[in-house]
Amino acid sequence: MNRFLLVARVRSSTAALASPRLEHGLLVVTTAALVGGGVAHFLDATGLADLFWGLGTVSAFVPAVGWVLVALRRGHAGVDLIAVLALGGTLAVGEYLAGTLIALMLATGRTLEEAAQRRAYHDLHSLLAHAPRSARRRTDDDVVRVPLGEVAAGDALVVGPGEVVPVDGRVESAEAVLDESALTGEPLQATRHRGEVARSGAVNAGGAFDLRATATEQDSTYAGIVRLARQAGAESAPVVRLADRYAAWFLPLALATAALAWLVSGSAVRAVAVLVVATPCPLLLAAPVAVVSGLSRASRRGVVVRDGGALENLGRARTLLLDKTGTLTVGRPCVRDVVAAPGHVPTEVLRTAASLDQFSPHVLAQALVDTARDRRLELSEPTEVTEEPGRGARGIVDGHRVFIGRDDAQARPAWAKAVDNRALLDGATVTWLAVDEHLTGAVLLRDPLRHDAPHAVRRLRSAGIARLVMLTGDRAATAQEVAAVLGLDGVRAGLGPADKVAAVRDEREHAVTVMVGDGVNDAPALAAADIGVAMGARGSTASSEAADIVLTTDRVDRLADAVVIAQRSRRIAVQSALGGMLLSLAAMAAAALGLIQPTVGALLQEGIDIAVILNALRALRAGRSEQVALAPAAEALIHRFAAEHDALQDVLQSVRAAADRLSRAPGPTALASVEEAHRLLTERLLPHEYAEEHELYPALAPSLGGPESTATMSRAHNEIGRLSRRIATHLQLARANGGLAPEQLDDLRSCLYGLNTVLRLHFTQEEESYFSLAP
Which range has the worst mean pLDDT, 147-161, 627-641, 739-753? Predict the structure, then answer.
């Protein structure tokens, strides 16, 4: 028993010796000892100077032994072992000044390293906070709330509005509207009908529904997610310090040289001199300084790297796994298009739908209202509004009975069938508008690609990321479309949290792997990866806490900045460490020949330290491959024209609507639609394109490398102007002839569809290539 107590005391003592507080205190003590001894030496108080320096040496020797013991207990001898031998040697031969200098360098290196490699524990606060603690169980007479642990398979439960589904079960009501974003990451709500499965962790986004439990708390989906995150975090391998990797060969070489010098010369002082100049300060200082500089540089770009080991690993990464929703896509539904029935216009369809939906908390309703306000539409005040969860909303708008939501009618007009086809092809969700019981329009919504995602993928490729794979819980067709646009190397769709963890483990067997995600469901995969990256600006707390790197701005292209910074910091750290060690090797040879005494060797080592530290500090500066910096005026222009893009979406829709009507019925109504589209082009879109050409592009040219960088966009402006003039010519002919001639129809249709395509492509290119540059 006494032996076990002794072992426990030794372990607790070494843990205390390795505490950050002690390292900071040691830095203060060794600095004070060096300065105090220097003052005493200047005053010819040699004995007092040796006392100060001796105390400074001893103050470092004791904790350094503790650090070495901790390292040996973990199975490796780190860079501190040579420092311990050198400190002991200086005490043995009375070279106290050399010992204090080594102590100061050791304390400085440990303090810097602690700052560079402070690692956050993988906390699961958000997961646990979201997990339900109780359930409402239906009895013969009443509904009672019981602790979740008492729920058994087969129990009849009631899930109220806004409550979390407590356990896995089957829906027993007609339907249940669930927000499953915590499980799948997908922002759109899912409707589960009678008999279908509802998983624990989903939130009831509709009315109360009955649930028949099919599993206990521990066997349910959400409890499994928590267990996965814990297991994956426990399996994460500890990061091996860059300094320790080099020490693996430097340490035995230094010891062999010191031993040989002692054996040949018979002088212990010569052996101590070898150990003094061999003290791996380039490793103790250069690598941490470069890494700390990289961390500082990354933080300025909105990237919080939680420890130096993660930055080092990121610099070696070659495989990147990305969640789709909230990472490559915006993470919420946005209006893609507005379609109006014959006799109606898209702008009025959107205005009416948003007017009714402006007080609804539904995610689709919010998207409609935001789009209408972005386009500066004046919304009306609805009355008598009722909402049927999972179905839609009804009310009175401007004296008309309006319905917005799901339409289950089997018989539909031709234009509505075309909308269904477009929704299928685009992977979009459709919400229908009916006014006075007549279908008058539809709004297509989807989770769009982030503007900065293509730019980020290109920069990650150029930074050396060889494999880019998307992991998503979404459908395969939607995921494949996103991957094709971005040019990814692979897609794994329909994945749950456990599947994502398995995919991460598969990739880790082949290369250092980074996982990027957003949401509670991504936390296990982030913890399982070599480096987990969370979209922390609006992502879940669980994913941020399970990650090694958090992007504090809602921009995935900041990850490319982090990779570039990590690679450059690691490269500078390696350069500094190797350069310093080569100089130390030369000094070791001189010391072994008796040309350098311990004190002189310590001063020489200080000179080497200064050189490698100055080189390591280069990591604070921006590298050539980092993203261009824009002038404030250029940033302001980007924000202005980005806002105009949002406001001009109705112009693009009017061009498409005019082309569709011309195809269906080329009569006076279709001609009026073309006239309206041309008016919007002339009054709003063409002035916008002119301003871009003469204001935005010249402002961007200096940062992008000259006017040639915007030449392809200028060519698109020319094509937009050409097609607009061609449409104007057709309209002049129609006015002269009293209507559209048959021979005009094919070319006019081609002009409208072509203009719609060019405009959408041009807008997307500008948003990805130029607008994504501004924070």
Answer: 627-641
